[in-house]
Amino acid sequence: MTDTKERPTGGVRLLKIQEAAAEVGLTARSVRYYEEMGLMRPAARSEGDYRLYDESDLERLRFIKGLRDDAGFSLAEISRLLEDEEARERYHAAYHATADPVERIRLLRERVASFERQAQTLRTKINRLAAMVDDTEARRLRSLARIAEIEAASADLEHAYPAQPEPGVTTNP
Amino acid sequence: MTDTKERPTGGVRLLKIQEAAAEVGLTARSVRYYEEMGLMRPAARSEGDYRLYDESDLERLRFIKGLRDDAGFSLAEISRLLEDEEARERYHAAYHATADPVERIRLLRERVASFERQAQTLRTKINRLAAMVDDTEARRLRSLARIAEIEAASADLEHAYPAQPEPGVTTNP
DNA sequence: CCCAACCTTGCCGTTTACGTGAAAGTATGG
DNA sequence: CCATACTTTCACGTAAACGGCAAGGTTGGG
To answer: Does residue A81 share a domain with residue A8?
Structure first.
Protein backbone atom coordinates (compact mmCIF):
# COMPACT_ATOMS: atom_id res chain seq x y z
CA MET A 1 0.00 0.00 0.00
CA THR A 2 2.82 2.31 0.88
CA ASP A 3 4.73 1.40 -2.20
CA THR A 4 3.91 4.08 -4.71
CA LYS A 5 7.59 4.85 -5.25
CA GLU A 6 9.85 4.21 -8.17
CA ARG A 7 13.08 3.73 -6.27
CA PRO A 8 13.38 0.70 -3.97
CA THR A 9 12.93 2.34 -0.59
CA GLY A 10 12.45 -0.92 1.23
CA GLY A 11 9.14 0.19 2.66
CA VAL A 12 10.82 2.26 5.38
CA ARG A 13 9.42 5.52 6.61
CA LEU A 14 9.84 8.42 4.24
CA LEU A 15 10.42 11.87 5.63
CA LYS A 16 8.94 15.14 4.48
CA ILE A 17 11.31 17.89 3.67
CA GLN A 18 11.44 19.57 7.04
CA GLU A 19 11.85 16.32 8.90
CA ALA A 20 14.62 15.29 6.58
CA ALA A 21 16.32 18.68 6.77
CA ALA A 22 16.17 18.75 10.56
CA GLU A 23 17.49 15.21 10.69
CA VAL A 24 20.69 16.16 8.90
CA GLY A 25 20.97 19.71 10.23
CA LEU A 26 19.95 21.67 7.16
CA THR A 27 17.04 23.92 6.30
CA ALA A 28 14.26 22.89 3.97
CA ARG A 29 15.27 25.73 1.69
CA SER A 30 18.79 24.41 1.38
CA VAL A 31 17.54 20.96 0.57
CA ARG A 32 15.30 22.37 -2.16
CA TYR A 33 18.17 24.44 -3.41
CA TYR A 34 20.44 21.42 -3.65
CA GLU A 35 17.78 19.73 -5.69
CA GLU A 36 17.46 22.81 -7.85
CA MET A 37 21.22 22.74 -8.39
CA GLY A 38 21.01 19.12 -9.44
CA LEU A 39 22.87 17.75 -6.43
CA MET A 40 20.07 15.38 -5.53
CA ARG A 41 16.40 14.55 -5.84
CA PRO A 42 14.03 13.03 -3.31
CA ALA A 43 13.34 9.32 -3.40
CA ALA A 44 9.68 10.01 -4.09
CA ARG A 45 6.83 12.48 -4.16
CA SER A 46 3.61 12.03 -2.24
CA GLU A 47 0.18 12.11 -3.76
CA GLY A 48 0.03 15.85 -3.18
CA ASP A 49 3.52 16.28 -4.61
CA TYR A 50 5.32 16.51 -1.28
CA ARG A 51 9.00 15.63 -1.46
CA LEU A 52 9.71 12.39 0.39
CA TYR A 53 13.18 11.36 1.48
CA ASP A 54 14.54 7.95 2.33
CA GLU A 55 17.62 6.95 4.29
CA SER A 56 19.94 7.06 1.30
CA ASP A 57 18.76 10.61 0.65
CA LEU A 58 19.68 11.50 4.20
CA GLU A 59 23.11 9.98 3.71
CA ARG A 60 23.57 12.02 0.61
CA LEU A 61 22.46 15.17 2.37
CA ARG A 62 24.85 14.47 5.21
CA PHE A 63 27.61 13.96 2.70
CA ILE A 64 26.81 17.25 1.00
CA LYS A 65 26.70 19.04 4.31
CA GLY A 66 30.01 17.50 5.26
CA LEU A 67 31.65 18.60 2.05
CA ARG A 68 30.19 22.07 2.48
CA ASP A 69 30.86 22.61 6.17
CA ASP A 70 33.86 20.47 6.91
CA ALA A 71 35.70 20.65 3.63
CA GLY A 72 34.47 24.04 2.56
CA PHE A 73 33.75 22.90 -0.97
CA SER A 74 31.48 25.00 -3.13
CA LEU A 75 28.31 23.42 -4.42
CA ALA A 76 29.93 23.34 -7.85
CA GLU A 77 32.83 21.30 -6.50
CA ILE A 78 30.45 19.10 -4.56
CA SER A 79 28.51 18.60 -7.74
CA ARG A 80 31.61 17.33 -9.43
CA LEU A 81 32.38 15.03 -6.53
CA LEU A 82 28.83 13.75 -6.62
CA GLU A 83 28.88 13.01 -10.29
CA ASP A 84 30.87 10.02 -9.19
CA GLU A 85 28.15 9.23 -6.71
CA GLU A 86 25.60 9.56 -9.42
CA ALA A 87 27.49 6.98 -11.35
CA ARG A 88 26.64 4.94 -8.31
CA GLU A 89 22.94 5.61 -8.85
CA ARG A 90 23.25 4.59 -12.45
CA TYR A 91 25.19 1.61 -11.21
CA HIS A 92 22.30 0.67 -8.98
CA ALA A 93 19.93 0.68 -11.90
CA ALA A 94 22.33 -1.04 -14.21
CA TYR A 95 23.36 -3.52 -11.55
CA HIS A 96 19.88 -4.78 -11.05
CA ALA A 97 19.26 -4.79 -14.75
CA THR A 98 21.92 -7.38 -15.35
CA ALA A 99 22.55 -10.77 -13.90
CA ASP A 100 25.83 -11.13 -15.71
CA PRO A 101 28.57 -11.40 -13.09
CA VAL A 102 31.12 -9.96 -15.46
CA GLU A 103 29.02 -6.86 -16.02
CA ARG A 104 28.28 -6.56 -12.33
CA ILE A 105 31.95 -6.68 -11.52
CA ARG A 106 32.68 -4.03 -14.13
CA LEU A 107 30.10 -1.76 -12.51
CA LEU A 108 31.48 -2.46 -9.07
CA ARG A 109 35.00 -1.64 -10.22
CA GLU A 110 33.73 1.64 -11.60
CA ARG A 111 32.19 2.33 -8.24
CA VAL A 112 35.43 1.52 -6.47
CA ALA A 113 37.31 3.90 -8.73
CA SER A 114 34.75 6.57 -7.92
CA PHE A 115 35.37 6.16 -4.22
CA GLU A 116 39.09 6.32 -4.81
CA ARG A 117 38.76 9.62 -6.63
CA GLN A 118 36.61 11.01 -3.84
CA ALA A 119 39.08 9.92 -1.20
CA GLN A 120 41.95 11.34 -3.18
CA THR A 121 40.29 14.72 -3.49
CA LEU A 122 39.72 14.79 0.25
CA ARG A 123 43.26 13.65 0.98
CA THR A 124 44.66 16.44 -1.16
CA LYS A 125 42.76 18.88 0.99
CA ILE A 126 43.94 17.18 4.15
CA ASN A 127 47.53 17.39 3.00
CA ARG A 128 47.27 21.09 2.36
CA LEU A 129 45.76 21.63 5.77
CA ALA A 130 48.46 19.47 7.31
CA ALA A 131 51.06 21.66 5.67
CA MET A 132 49.47 24.69 7.28
CA VAL A 133 49.47 22.95 10.63
CA ASP A 134 53.16 22.15 10.21
CA ASP A 135 53.81 25.76 9.41
CA THR A 136 51.96 26.94 12.48
CA GLU A 137 53.72 24.32 14.53
CA ALA A 138 57.11 25.51 13.34
CA ARG A 139 56.30 29.06 14.31
CA ARG A 140 55.10 27.89 17.68
CA LEU A 141 58.37 26.07 18.24
CA ARG A 142 60.35 29.14 17.28
CA SER A 143 58.47 31.12 19.89
CA LEU A 144 59.12 28.46 22.46
CA ALA A 145 62.79 28.59 21.60
CA ARG A 146 62.78 32.34 22.10
CA ILE A 147 61.18 31.87 25.49
CA ALA A 148 63.87 29.41 26.45
CA GLU A 149 66.52 31.87 25.28
CA ILE A 150 65.16 34.68 27.32
CA GLU A 151 64.74 32.48 30.33
CA ALA A 152 68.33 31.35 30.02
CA ALA A 153 69.55 34.92 29.78
CA SER A 154 67.27 35.84 32.61
CA ALA A 155 68.67 33.10 34.77
CA ASP A 156 72.12 34.62 34.33
CA LEU A 157 70.90 37.94 35.63
CA GLU A 158 68.82 36.47 38.36
CA HIS A 159 70.76 38.22 41.06
CA ALA A 160 69.34 41.53 39.86
CA TYR A 161 65.78 40.30 40.41
CA PRO A 162 65.41 38.09 43.47
CA ALA A 163 62.36 36.54 41.88
CA GLN A 164 61.47 32.91 42.31
CA PRO A 165 63.18 30.75 39.69
CA GLU A 166 60.94 29.46 36.97
CA PRO A 167 60.08 25.81 37.00
CA GLY A 168 61.66 23.75 34.25
CA VAL A 169 60.70 24.59 30.71
CA THR A 170 59.58 21.04 30.23
CA THR A 171 56.96 21.06 27.54
CA ASN A 172 55.01 17.93 28.09
CA PRO A 173 54.27 15.95 24.95
CA MET B 1 69.33 52.70 10.45
CA THR B 2 67.20 55.48 9.00
CA ASP B 3 63.75 54.11 8.62
CA THR B 4 61.17 56.39 7.12
CA LYS B 5 58.44 53.82 7.73
CA GLU B 6 56.40 53.20 10.79
CA ARG B 7 56.70 49.46 10.85
CA PRO B 8 60.19 47.92 10.80
CA THR B 9 60.41 46.75 7.22
CA GLY B 10 64.12 46.08 7.38
CA GLY B 11 64.79 48.27 4.36
CA VAL B 12 63.75 45.50 1.97
CA ARG B 13 61.95 46.16 -1.27
CA LEU B 14 58.32 47.03 -0.85
CA LEU B 15 55.83 45.87 -3.43
CA LYS B 16 52.93 47.77 -4.90
CA ILE B 17 49.56 46.12 -4.71
CA GLN B 18 49.59 44.35 -8.05
CA GLU B 19 53.10 43.03 -7.57
CA ALA B 20 52.19 41.78 -4.13
CA ALA B 21 48.93 40.25 -5.31
CA ALA B 22 50.60 38.49 -8.23
CA GLU B 23 53.33 37.23 -5.91
CA VAL B 24 50.84 35.39 -3.71
CA GLY B 25 48.34 34.50 -6.42
CA LEU B 26 45.59 36.94 -5.61
CA THR B 27 44.05 39.91 -7.39
CA ALA B 28 44.65 43.48 -6.32
CA ARG B 29 40.94 43.78 -5.72
CA SER B 30 40.96 40.91 -3.27
CA VAL B 31 43.89 42.37 -1.39
CA ARG B 32 42.09 45.69 -1.06
CA TYR B 33 38.98 43.87 0.02
CA TYR B 34 40.85 42.01 2.73
CA GLU B 35 42.13 45.30 4.00
CA GLU B 36 38.63 46.72 3.84
CA MET B 37 37.44 43.77 5.91
CA GLY B 38 40.14 44.43 8.46
CA LEU B 39 42.12 41.28 7.75
CA MET B 40 45.31 43.21 7.12
CA ARG B 41 46.87 46.52 6.23
CA PRO B 42 49.93 47.25 4.11
CA ALA B 43 53.22 47.84 5.83
CA ALA B 44 53.34 51.36 4.44
CA ARG B 45 51.95 53.89 2.00
CA SER B 46 54.01 55.72 -0.58
CA GLU B 47 54.20 59.48 -0.89
CA GLY B 48 51.27 59.37 -3.28
CA ASP B 49 49.33 57.03 -0.98
CA TYR B 50 50.14 53.84 -2.86
CA ARG B 51 49.85 50.72 -0.72
CA LEU B 52 53.26 49.13 -0.10
CA TYR B 53 53.68 45.56 1.07
CA ASP B 54 56.62 43.91 2.81
CA GLU B 55 57.52 40.26 3.18
CA SER B 56 55.47 39.76 6.33
CA ASP B 57 52.47 41.13 4.47
CA LEU B 58 53.04 38.56 1.77
CA GLU B 59 53.21 35.82 4.36
CA ARG B 60 49.97 37.02 5.82
CA LEU B 61 48.34 37.13 2.39
CA ARG B 62 49.55 33.63 1.66
CA PHE B 63 48.14 32.49 4.96
CA ILE B 64 44.80 34.11 4.19
CA LYS B 65 44.75 32.54 0.76
CA GLY B 66 45.59 29.19 2.28
CA LEU B 67 42.78 29.42 4.77
CA ARG B 68 40.41 30.52 2.05
CA ASP B 69 41.35 28.08 -0.70
CA ASP B 70 42.69 25.08 1.14
CA ALA B 71 40.62 25.16 4.28
CA GLY B 72 37.58 26.83 2.78
CA PHE B 73 37.19 29.22 5.69
CA SER B 74 35.07 32.29 5.26
CA LEU B 75 36.71 35.65 5.65
CA ALA B 76 34.83 36.02 8.91
CA GLU B 77 36.36 32.82 10.22
CA ILE B 78 39.74 33.85 8.90
CA SER B 79 39.30 37.13 10.67
CA ARG B 80 38.77 35.32 13.92
CA LEU B 81 41.78 33.14 13.32
CA LEU B 82 43.82 36.18 12.52
CA GLU B 83 42.80 38.03 15.61
CA ASP B 84 45.28 35.74 17.20
CA GLU B 85 47.77 36.79 14.58
CA GLU B 86 46.97 40.38 15.31
CA ALA B 87 47.86 39.72 18.88
CA ARG B 88 51.17 38.92 17.23
CA GLU B 89 51.27 42.38 15.67
CA ARG B 90 50.53 43.95 18.99
CA TYR B 91 53.12 41.65 20.44
CA HIS B 92 55.65 42.99 17.97
CA ALA B 93 54.97 46.53 19.05
CA ALA B 94 54.78 45.70 22.72
CA TYR B 95 57.77 43.40 22.52
CA HIS B 96 60.03 46.12 21.31
CA ALA B 97 58.54 48.53 23.77
CA THR B 98 59.68 46.55 26.76
CA ALA B 99 63.02 45.20 27.84
CA ASP B 100 61.53 43.34 30.76
CA PRO B 101 62.14 39.63 30.17
CA VAL B 102 59.10 38.69 32.23
CA GLU B 103 56.87 40.79 30.03
CA ARG B 104 58.55 39.52 26.89
CA ILE B 105 57.96 35.97 27.97
CA ARG B 106 54.34 36.71 28.75
CA LEU B 107 53.91 38.08 25.24
CA LEU B 108 55.67 35.10 23.74
CA ARG B 109 53.49 32.68 25.65
CA GLU B 110 50.44 34.50 24.36
CA ARG B 111 51.84 34.06 20.88
CA VAL B 112 52.44 30.37 21.46
CA ALA B 113 48.89 29.94 22.69
CA SER B 114 47.68 31.72 19.56
CA PHE B 115 49.55 29.27 17.35
CA GLU B 116 48.13 26.40 19.33
CA ARG B 117 44.60 27.61 18.80
CA GLN B 118 45.27 28.04 15.11
CA ALA B 119 46.70 24.55 14.81
CA GLN B 120 43.82 23.12 16.78
CA THR B 121 41.26 24.74 14.52
CA LEU B 122 43.00 23.30 11.52
CA ARG B 123 43.35 19.88 13.11
CA THR B 124 39.64 19.81 13.85
CA LYS B 125 38.99 20.37 10.20
CA ILE B 126 41.51 17.71 9.25
CA ASN B 127 39.84 15.22 11.55
CA ARG B 128 36.46 15.82 10.01
CA LEU B 129 37.91 15.36 6.56
CA ALA B 130 39.69 12.23 7.72
CA ALA B 131 36.37 10.87 8.93
CA MET B 132 34.92 11.45 5.50
CA VAL B 133 37.87 9.70 3.93
CA ASP B 134 37.36 6.76 6.29
CA ASP B 135 33.73 6.64 5.30
CA THR B 136 34.58 6.63 1.63
CA GLU B 137 37.23 4.03 2.26
CA ALA B 138 34.74 1.79 4.06
CA ARG B 139 32.35 1.98 1.14
CA ARG B 140 35.15 1.23 -1.25
CA LEU B 141 36.05 -1.85 0.76
CA ARG B 142 32.46 -3.00 0.77
CA SER B 143 32.42 -2.79 -3.00
CA LEU B 144 35.64 -4.74 -3.18
CA ALA B 145 34.11 -7.37 -0.94
CA ARG B 146 31.12 -7.60 -3.26
CA ILE B 147 33.44 -8.10 -6.18
CA ALA B 148 35.18 -10.91 -4.34
CA GLU B 149 31.81 -12.47 -3.53
CA ILE B 150 30.68 -12.43 -7.09
CA GLU B 151 33.95 -13.80 -8.30
CA ALA B 152 33.77 -16.61 -5.77
CA ALA B 153 30.20 -17.45 -6.64
CA SER B 154 31.04 -17.28 -10.26
CA ALA B 155 33.85 -19.74 -9.80
CA ASP B 156 31.70 -22.13 -7.73
CA LEU B 157 28.73 -22.13 -10.02
CA GLU B 158 30.66 -22.23 -13.21
CA HIS B 159 28.15 -24.63 -14.70
CA ALA B 160 25.05 -22.85 -13.46
CA TYR B 161 23.87 -19.27 -13.65
CA PRO B 162 23.21 -16.98 -10.67
CA ALA B 163 19.50 -16.91 -9.94
CA GLN B 164 19.53 -14.68 -6.87
CA PRO B 165 22.40 -13.18 -4.86
CA GLU B 166 22.98 -15.23 -1.73
CA PRO B 167 24.52 -13.26 1.11
CA GLY B 168 26.83 -14.80 3.70
CA VAL B 169 29.20 -16.51 1.31
CA THR B 170 32.16 -14.57 2.56
CA THR B 171 35.12 -16.52 1.36
CA ASN B 172 38.49 -15.27 2.48
CA PRO B 173 40.19 -13.05 -0.18
C1' DC C 1 58.15 67.73 -19.13
C1' DC C 2 55.17 64.09 -20.87
C1' DC C 3 52.76 60.11 -21.33
C1' DA C 4 51.70 55.39 -20.47
C1' DA C 5 50.98 52.54 -16.83
C1' DC C 6 49.98 52.08 -12.55
C1' DC C 7 47.47 53.63 -8.34
C1' DT C 8 43.54 55.85 -5.47
C1' DT C 9 38.55 55.99 -3.73
C1' DG C 10 33.83 55.36 -4.91
C1' DC C 11 30.26 52.95 -6.57
C1' DC C 12 27.57 49.75 -8.93
C1' DG C 13 27.21 44.85 -10.90
C1' DT C 14 27.53 39.70 -10.27
C1' DT C 15 27.63 35.07 -8.46
C1' DT C 16 26.75 31.92 -4.76
C1' DA C 17 23.88 30.09 -1.40
C1' DC C 18 20.58 30.65 0.49
C1' DG C 19 16.32 33.69 3.43
C1' DT C 20 11.78 35.36 3.19
C1' DG C 21 7.35 36.13 1.95
C1' DA C 22 3.08 35.33 -1.21
C1' DA C 23 -0.53 32.55 -2.94
C1' DA C 24 -2.39 28.25 -3.23
C1' DG C 25 -2.66 23.30 -2.32
C1' DT C 26 -2.26 19.24 1.21
C1' DA C 27 -2.33 16.64 5.55
C1' DT C 28 -4.41 15.82 10.01
C1' DG C 29 -6.06 16.08 14.94
C1' DG C 30 -10.41 17.40 17.08
C1' DC D 1 -15.74 19.80 8.46
C1' DC D 2 -12.51 22.81 9.90
C1' DA D 3 -8.49 24.94 11.76
C1' DT D 4 -3.80 24.65 11.72
C1' DA D 5 0.53 23.32 10.22
C1' DC D 6 3.12 22.02 6.59
C1' DT D 7 3.96 21.85 1.69
C1' DT D 8 4.31 23.53 -3.25
C1' DT D 9 6.25 26.98 -6.83
C1' DC D 10 7.49 31.70 -7.96
C1' DA D 11 9.64 35.55 -6.94
C1' DC D 12 12.21 38.91 -4.92
C1' DG D 13 15.80 40.13 -1.13
C1' DT D 14 20.49 39.62 0.84
C1' DA D 15 25.27 38.83 2.65
C1' DA D 16 29.78 37.46 1.12
C1' DA D 17 33.43 38.06 -1.93
C1' DC D 18 34.78 39.91 -5.09
C1' DG D 19 34.81 42.17 -10.65
C1' DG D 20 34.77 46.26 -13.28
C1' DC D 21 34.39 50.92 -14.41
C1' DA D 22 34.87 55.96 -13.72
C1' DA D 23 37.35 60.07 -12.49
C1' DG D 24 41.25 61.55 -10.96
C1' DG D 25 46.17 61.32 -8.82
C1' DT D 26 51.16 59.19 -8.92
C1' DT D 27 55.33 57.06 -10.93
C1' DG D 28 58.93 56.64 -13.77
C1' DG D 29 61.26 56.07 -18.16
C1' DG D 30 62.42 58.83 -22.31
So the answer is: no
